[in-house]
Amino acid sequence: MNSLPPTSFWQGKKIRLRAIEPSDWETYFAWNQDDEQSRALYFIPFPQSRASVKQFAEKAAVREPEGDNFRFVIENSEQEVVGDITTHDCDPRIGTFSWGINIKQEYRRRGYASEALLLVMRYYFQELRYQKVTVSIHSFNEASVKLHERLGFQQEGCIRRAVFTRGQYFDELIYGLTKEEFVAKHVSMTL
Predict the structure, then answer these.
(1) Per-residue pLDDT reduced to its tens digit, 89-123
(2) Among 67, 75, 142, 158, which residue carries the largest CB count within 10 Å?
């Protein structure tokens, strides 16, 4: 990371956000082998071939963003890919967006997710004029619930029995944070 100027918007103290590269396919292929990681994000998918994941990474690396929806790769100071965050449901007219975040198991609880989310919020709130982020979290994903609550998110709702996995139904928890709440809690801190 020393090659980046210290003034890069996408550079934090512990991580850097960047676009996906074709060479990232191996990381994504390895993630696809971790069923619990997949389950926490959405569901356990059918197996994917190496060729399929290579093709995904090649296409994602050259794909133009769809509006403000974007996939960020999270890299630590050793330039290791530690996770990714994908913004979606970006509505610039209303000023709302959402995301999904994934941190590799061996890199969790090191502050990478918090810093990545703060960088993304800073960009969407202070550069793109968004006014609120809303996320859906499976009720069994306690680590994600705790992360978002530490960042100041408020639980706004619960959709009962919206997720089916492990042979049972779970709730989908809805959390939100406004721009004003972000500013009050985080803007004085330096990223």
Answers:
(1) 999 999 999 999 999 989 999 999 999 999 999 99
(2) 75
